[in-house]
Structure prediction request, 331 residues.
Amino acid sequence: MALQTSGAISFANIQTEFGGSNPISLSEYYGSDDVPTSGAISLNDFYGTSDVFNATRGVWGGGGNFNNNMDYMTIASTGNAADFGDLTADRKGLAACASETRGVFAGGNSNIMDYITISTTGNATDFGDLTRNAYYSAACSNLTRGVSGGGNSGGYSNVMEYITISSTGNATDFGDLTARWQLAACASDTRGVFGGGGYSNTVEYITISSTGNATNFGDLSQDRRALAACSNDTRGVFGGGTFGSGFGGGYSNVMDYITIASTGTATDFGDLTMARTGLAGLASATRGVFAGGGYGLTNIMDYVTISSTSNASDLGDLMLARNGLAGCSGG
Prediction:
């Protein structure tokens, strides 16, 4: 079940909303002595304040001319980002993943990993080390495990490695994918998907809870690198990047989507508000956000509703205009 992030839960619908084909009773949640019988229940009452909070907050880190800046925003609303704190080191071309409560930023001209608690603000803390210096790799995660892959480690890398997000420690080998850098990744609770990079339209997938080499998924609608991705548990959306050969290639405003549980060629989703490269993505259960990018460096954040198809809309601005950043959320 996707986590609802706005509105109130009606008692008339609560059993089917939360029980599906096997409805729950309110007494199972509240206890038989304290069951309300009318009105609506707030999301904080049902989920707990921290779960709702983490599911709607996104955190961006690094990028630009190698900085340690982190800023955050509320995914469900519009508005500018605010200061979160600092990464442990200046870096660019890093990757990020998250559980419901903790975000991890990895690589970027280094093997550094550091973590944050999404519901608070403050500086990042050392998590451990990647097995290599990973520049412009990509990362995805479920609630438990994060997997990073690809990048440039003195040449295009095919390495994938994983961490357990709730603990700290060095990354462990996961398996191999097609060697490339400046790719993007997204995930459901069970499957991770890596797409694009190195002027490729290749899409490959893994089962996050296991280890092993990636398997062919299908193709993006356009060959491109330095793109971004975001997802909910059902659909992944890839956006932006550079197409064509060399640094003279064009910047893309293309967004295309996949159904993560299946395989096949990506389908047109709509257009970003501006064609750009080196951007980053993150999402809640309902909304995806793309931020930054462009060799001219932009502070743009635009959003989409993941379950629909349409052009992106302006959400607000990052604190700093930059590319090569990474984003994560508890959604």
Notes: The first strand starts at residue 8 and ends at 10. The chain has two domains: 10-41, 51-329. Residues 51-329 form a domain with the Neuraminidase fold (CATH 2.120.10.80).
